[in-house]
Specification:
Layout lengths: L5 H18 L4 H8 L3 H8 L7 H10 L4 H18 L3 H5 L5 H10 L2 E6 L10 H10 L5 H12 L1 H4 L4 E7 H9 L5 H17 L3 E6 L12 E5 L7 E6 L2 E6 L3 H16 L3 H26 L5
Parallel strand pairs: 1-2, 2-3
Antiparallel strand pairs: 1-4, 4-5, 5-6
Helix pairs in contact: 1-5, 2-3, 4-5, 8-9, 11-14, 12-14
Length: 300
């Protein structure tokens, strides 16, 4: 249909969408209100800076009453961008089966609420931390595994104005500062990454449940996804056997919501949590300095 490069197709996709929006007399903000997206996200999609989910594009086409021939062109351009930028066949063939629907849902959610106990969740992980985790679990396809994890972590970059709320146990910080590791810089880099997100990311809130306030036992990790269309809300839990998804009308979803509220009520404030990370950073700098002294390497 077209011999344009993927980049050129993305530009043309955006040009057609902009022209149709202007013809209907809508601003980016007004269109975003109808589609359930903020103006900055609409702007990024119109400029080809981030992909458009096929369902969203179909709704976009309906809202702007784009005629059928142009609509098919838009779908063709969008499909090309998805194939080139996201659905790399070789890498996704190596991905676990549960990854695809979870990744799709995370891309579309307006609000992400995430609880994790002793680990740093995938969306919050640095690349070095990802490598350590996959190697520790004996993954042989580390490159592919890191690629898929980085796609999830890129959410925070691609959609900075969405709402991301993370609650972690203090155990997650203790494991970073106290667990045996051959390379203390991995843990230090991870703590600094969390601290940077906590201090500077406009849409992300990171809070910790401290030992002295937290319950004696907490349940498994879970994620709650909330959408512009609340009927699509769901929660999911990643397990060694895959992922379990619970829709908004299920008892488990309501239980996860209640658990979230309970954990949130005893979690440190965002500022207190940032201070906890600063203390962890200082501890790890001390550990790294000791390691550098033993090896003669300069402190990073």
């Amino acid at each position: 249909m077209s011999r344009l490069s993927v980049e050129a197709q993305l530009v043309e996709l955006g040009r057609i969408l902009v022209a149709a929006r202007v013809e209907r007399g809508l601003t980016q903000g007004e269109l975003g209100d109808v589609l359930g997206y903020t103006q900055p996200n609409i702007s990024k999609m119109e400029r080809g800076k981030t992909r458009i989910h096929p369902h969203l594009l179909d709704k976009w086409i309906d809202v702007l009453a784009i005629e059928s021939a142009a609509a098919e062109t838009l779908r063709h351009y969008n499909q090309a961008s998805r194939a080139d930028r996201v659905w790399n066949a070789r890498r996704l063939a190596a991905s676990p089966a549960w990854f695809h629907p979870v990744f799709e849902a995370e891309q579309e959610a307006a609000i992400i609420l995430k609880w994790t106990g002793e680990r740093i969740s995938g969306i919050l992980q640095t690349e070095d931390y990802m490598m350590e985790q996959f190697q520790a679990y004996g993954r042989t396809d580390v490159t592919n595994a890191v690629h898929e994890r980085k796609l999830r972590a890129k959410l925070l970059e691609d959609f900075p104005d969405r709402t991301y709320k993370f609650i972690l146990s203090e155990s997650a910080v203790c494991r970073l500062t106290k667990a045996r590791t051959d390379n203390p810089y991995v843990a230090l880099g991870q703590v600094r990454h969390l601290l940077d997100l906590a201090r500077n990311h406009p849409g992300a809130t990171i809070r910790f449940v401290p030992f002295e306030k937290g319950p004696l036992h907490v349940g498994p990790d879970f994620t709650i996804l909330q959408f512009a269309n609340n009927a699509l809300d769901r929660s999911f839990a990643e397990t060694s056997n895959g992922v379990q998804v619970f829709k908004a009308d299920t008892e488990t979803y309501e239980t996860d919501l209640q658990s979230w509220e309970s954990l949130s009520s005893v979690a440190l404030s965002a500022e207190e949590s940032a201070i906890l990370l600063e203390e962890a950073e200082a501890d790890l700098i001390s550990i790294a300095a000791s390691a550098a002294g033993r090896t003669g390497e300069p402190l990073r």
